Amino acid sequence: MRGLHSALDAAGPQAGRIEDLWWIFFSVCTVVFLLVLTALLAAVLHSRREKERHRLPGPERNLTRAVGGATAVTVILLLGLLIASVTTGRAVGSPAPSNSLTLEVVGHQWWWEIHYEDPLPSRRFTTANEIHIPVGLPIRIKTRSSDVIHSFWVPSLHGKRDLIPGYPTETWLQADRPGVFRGQCAEFCGAQHANMALVVVAEPPAEFAAWRSAQLQTPPPPATALQQRGQAVFLAMPCPACHTIAGTSAGGRIGPDLTHLASRSTLAAGTLPNTTGHLAGWILDPQTQKPGNQMPAIALQADDLQALLAYLESLR
Amino acid sequence: MSVAERYEPNAGAEADAEEARRLRETWKSRSGLIGFLTETNHKKIAARYLVTAFVFFILGGLEAFVMRLQLARPEAHVVGPDLYNQIFTVHGSTMMFLFGVPVMEAVGIYLVPLMIGTRNMAFPRLNAYSWYVYLIGGLLLYGAFFLNTGPDAGWFCYVPLAGPEYGPGKRVDVWAQLVTFTELAGLAAAVNQVATILKMRAPGMSLSRMPLFVWATLVASVMTIFAMPAVMAASSLLALDRLVATHFFNPAEGGDALLWQHLFWFFGHPEVYIIFIPALGMVSAILPAFTRRPVFGYNAMVLSIVATGFIGFGLWVHHMFATGLPQLGQSFFTAASMMIAIPSGVQIFCWLATLWSGRLRFAPPLLYVLGFVFIFVLGGLTGVMVASVPLDFQLHDTFFVVAHFHYVLIGGAVFPLLGAIYFWFPKMTGRRMFDRLGKWSFWITFVGFNLTFFPMHQLGLQGMPRRIYTYRAETGWGDLNLLATAGAVILALGLLLYLINVLSSWRGGALAGNDPWGAEGLEWSTTSPPPIYNYQHLPTVSGRAPLWEQGDDQPVVVGLRTDRREFLATRLIDAEPDHRDTLPDDAWAPLATAIATAVTFIGVIFTPWALPAGMILTTIALVGWFWPKRDRPRDWMEEQP
Questions:
Q1: CA–centroid distance for B336 within its chain
Q2: Mean pLDDT of chain B, nearest integer
Q3: Which of A195, A215, B330, B639 is most buried by a 10 A CB count?
Q4: Of A86, A88, A194, which is closest to B468 when you measure between CB atoms?
Q5: Is residue A14 domain-shared with residue A144, that is, in the same domain?
Q6: Which among A8, A36, A187 is the nearest to B461, CB-wise?
Q7: Cβ-based contacts of B165 with chain A (< 8 Å)
């Protein structure tokens, strides 16, 4: 089963093991279901042949044997499934390999904050709603929540892990092939639970390295006059109270870091594609696209808006 | 005490009629509105319970229908996120608290005294009180919902989303108090059932001869008594957090967000069994009449019901696998969750054996049982899947789980319930439902149900999470959602036909007589509908299938006074006669106490002072409840006739 985010389209070892387990369970359960249906059908047909009314039957050895046998088979099958499940559980629950890259995923109402960790402070950076990972490398995911419970879930790579305030946890995943894998918050987290998605871009190590070094750069000062004016608009409006852009005085931590906004493929946690038109619509009227989210509408003159868009789109 | 004398049917028809007249005089309710408000007869209370529960079922169904319309297409705008979140919360809360549990209690309250051969429940006033409390709780929820204050944090109400910081306003408080109301009503109904079943069975109905439905009601009631206190603790702590700023669930102040989940699911999982164990009892009660034989494997069936009741308390963590709990503990709960498939399997196998060796009559109740086997087995198998920790990592909180529990709860509880209503409708109303319409409505419901919920398995595997009010077109979930919505239309049509059948046959159905199905249970020996006192002569029992095994010379209970509400208490295990006792008369006290309780529960949403004030009011009402009747002491001194 293909799909942007199908649990049965595994792209890594964790999701792969679970998919294998799924097919074991699916096969056994299908066979059992068909057997029960056959027995039901057989019972209905057989009973039509029963001529006399025997309301109070005596001992029924054959029936007892059949029921006992069916129960024994049930127990054996369940035991087998239990063993398969626990084995898979140990494999997917193993600690992350030591060579892994570490990310911290922080859940917010209703977006994802992503910290790339590194022993060297100069190689750490923060982004939002879009995770890039190198193919073939284990990724350790540390999770925490800043407000309510969320659940981090990218079905093609791994099952879900809840982000519970007060309970930081960690898990790991890995992509074995390049691709774009969609994920979505899986624990009900309020008004915009439906629009809290993220994408994981798995790419060859070289491309990932290029992406990472781009993310580590502080964006150059605005080049054109329009962009310069856009930056001034950004700083004059309430934007910096919530958003950070590295290299400027904007250092808000409430909303997503916008330092490399233009490099991302979506806006508002997977709600909209990142295009000029959608970006303009989002800034002017975020409550129509994602009612209840924390961004207020920003009233802008047309030329100020054009300048702001030019500036934001330069943040690659 | 001369309890079990041989009853001579021909000796004095006149004396018989006189006795019936006196019984009616003693047991009848007062007339008019006063009679309505002071009613304590189990059949009347059960009828109210049933009607109330089905009204809530219709409301919950309409909410489901709105959700299906909203999800039929990507990015639809039938309702917005705020209303959608209220709707799915109210739908879940309604179906669990206001329909699932109460409707099973309702059927039990109607049938148990008839099945065990007594005149009323052990605590008639408590019975009335529990219905009032349940009704007021439901009115609170819907009153708030229509005022746009419907709870919106899910029927599971996870903190911190439901806490004071992220759930401002009164919405969550309404939910917490709804739970308090319904758990109180549930506890009252449960203790009442346990006492009734253990102490009021007909002489000779030892535990080993008790009908399977009564066993199921007993186990579900005992489970209620153990499960409800957990959610009572949870909702009280939540109310304290919200009302007087305690920090039980606030991690920033040393509270614990996971504590809620443990407390909630320690109740929440048994809750599912509290709903569907009685339904399994209904299946066992329906089958004999339509297979013309008793259910195969009585002992195995009873042991399975009891085992389910025990194991049901060891599964709650399987709702929390994704929280990252330690692996060893998770494996334990996987094993327990799979283990519960064994008693369910045993029951399925016993029913299949019953069908195999019986002579079937394809009336609608049997169709519902066959449909139940199909759906419930499927739901049980997906239950085995979600019990596996690694599979649950993928399936948890997706539409796969939505599909799973609708298969279990609609297949495992609503189908048997519809069959049971069909089966006992003649007993309750004296008239039969229309079989042709019944068959049509069964097949339409069955097809509609599967069309609605089967595609949801696939949607879950394709990554569609639960509780989302919309989704984007590129997710690829549109077509299956459209199919599910089309199925919902068919399902609704099937249920509508059922409702039409009930309403039209209530007036115009064929007269049923005492035992229209040729069934074996004691309840079929009295008239349809039964007289207010159930049995003129309380029966005795000498087997598991009384009407099939016992002749006309079966002894009856004699020697009970007819000038007051006297009943025979029997011993717990062997149901040998123990002593006579008197049930209280109809009274205002249940209504007064329920109002006092409601003032307390609704008041604390707004001020903590409602608690002491409500306690005083409730105390006054309870004094009225237990006020001794003036003539009682003298009465007791009299020589017993």
A1: 25
A2: 93
A3: A195
A4: A194
A5: yes
A6: A8
A7: 147
User: What pLDDT is recorded for position B14?
Assistant: 86
- Cβ-based contacts of B396 with chain A (< 8 Å): 159-160, 186
Q: In terms of domains, do A15 and A95 share one? A: yes
Same domain for A165 and A186, yes or no, is yes
A101-108 and A139-145 as β-strands: parallel, antiparallel, unpaired?
A: parallel
State whether A147 and A244 are in the same domain: no
Rounded to whole angstroms, the maximal C-alpha distance in chain B is: 84
Residues of B in contact with A40 (CB under 8 A): 352, 355, 370, 373-374
- CATH code at A265? 2.60.40.420
Q: What's the rounded Cα separation, in Å, for the pair B473 and B470?
A: 10
Confidence check: pLDDT of A37 > 80: yes
Does A239 share its domain with A261? yes
Interface of B with A in 288-317 (CB under 8 A): 291-294, 296-297, 300
Pick from B345, B348, B391: CB nearest A22: B391
Size of interface A-B (CB pairs under 8 A): 268
Check: complex ipTM more than 0.90: yes
Q: Do A184 and A233 have their domain in common?
A: no
According to the model, what pLDDT value does residue B364 have? Answer: 96
pLDDT in tens, A129-158: 999 999 999 999 999 999 999 999 999 999
pTM confidence score: 0.94
- Neighbour-count burial of B489, counting CB atoms closer than 10 A to its CB (0-12 exposed, 13-18 middle, 19+ buried): middle
- Which of A188, A216, A244 finishes a domain? A216
Chain B residues with beta carbon closer than 8 angstroms to that of A63? 296-297, 353, 356-357
Give the residue from B364, B379, B374 showing the smallest Cα distance to B419. B364
Q: Mutation target for A interface from B304, B374, B392, B462: give the one with most A CBs within 10 A.
A: B462
Calculate the alpha carbon distances from A273 to A150, B19, B122, B167, B234 in Å.
23, 82, 65, 30, 42
Residue A291 domain boundaries: 225-312
Integer angstrom CA distances of residue B510 from A74, B68, B313, B368, B433: 45, 38, 45, 21, 8
Q: Which of B499, B527, B496, B501 is nearest to B514 (CA)?
A: B527
How much is the pLDDT for B552? 80
Instruction: Scan residues 27-46 of B and list those with Cβ closer than 8 Å to A.
Output: none
Are A233 and A176 found together in one domain? no
Sort out which chain B residues have CB atoms less than 8 A from A33's CB and list them. Answer: 377-378, 381
| CB < 8 Å from A in window 318-377 of B | 322-324, 327, 330-331, 334-335, 338-339, 341-342, 345-346, 348-350, 352-353, 355-360, 370, 373-374, 377
Last residue of a domain, one of A216, A240, A267: A216
**Cβ within 8 Å, pair A187-B397:** yes
pLDDT tens across B537-580, in order? Answer: 999 999 999 999 888 888 999 888 988 999 999 999 999 999 99
Q: How many CB atoms lie within 10 A of CB A18?
A: 27
Question: B483-510 pLDDT, tens per residue?
Answer: 999 999 999 999 999 999 999 999 999 9
Quote the crossing angle between the two packed helices B212-244 and B101-116, to the nearest 10°: 140
**Tell me, what DSSP letter sits at residue B99?**
I
CA B222 to chain centre: 13
Q: Which of residues 442-461 of B touch A (CB under 8 A)?
A: 461
Residue identified by tokens 């949870």 is B234
DSSP-derived letter for residue A157 is: T
A100 and A9 in a common domain: yes
Nearest chain B CA: its distance from A16 CA (Å)? 11
For the purposes of burial, counting CB atoms within 10 Å of the CB of A48, is it exposed (0-12), middle (13-18) or buried (19 or more)?
exposed
For B395, which residue in chain A has the nearest alpha carbon? A159
The answer to whether B373 contacts A66, with C-beta atoms less than 8 Å apart, is: no
**Structural domains counted in chain A:** 2
